[in-house]
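Researcher: Next entry in the queue.
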Amino acid sequence: MNPLKHVAIIMDGNGRWGLKYKNSRNAGHKAGLDTVEMIIKETIKNKIDYLTLFAFSTENWKRPKKEIYYLFNLLENFLINKIEELDRNNIKLKILGSKKFSSKLNELLDYSEKKTSKNSKLQINLALNYGSKLELINAFKKISKSKNKINEKNLQKYLQTKNIPDPDILIRTGNTKRLSNFLLWQLAYTEIFFEKKLWPAFTEKDFKRIIKEYKNTKRNFGKI
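Model: Structure for this entry, 224 residues:
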């Protein structure tokens, strides 16, 4: 049975769910937060150490400004209302990506990381303004300046996921089968599960099914 330390999720389909059921993309984003809270609880129940959530990519800036504003306002409210609870539950929050947001959101993100930095039950990596290609380019620039040899071990030292094990599982909801510039290096040997359900419709039962399937999967890592 495979050990499970790290689950990564591309939370796709919020907007489509909102349009279908509430006639509003924003309503879908709000509903998606309920699924996030459920996944956090289930991750803890299954004693998984790391949960990485793809919340906003470097390409998502192409979306309508009103939707982007709503997304960040939703995140601000989530942090204001939930960071104390996350801290009490011994959950650590780490941000992946570049903090190029409003001063209020940047301060909230910095505060949340600092407040939870010593927690150890679960580490949530929130990918915001994150793009894997940019992460790799920046890592190569840093390794070149350091004059270290360019090899796998040294490169990993300059990734934003330094000291974080690669994901064992990637879940992408929304019936879309692509990686969308997410953790391209780190997902090299990850077991990938593409789900038809839109993110707000993803359930505890779905998560448990994927975990069970993963644990019974034969992982070769290039061997026979």
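Model: Strands lie at 6-10, 50-57, 91-96, 122-130, 169-172, 191-194.
Researcher: Noted, moving on.
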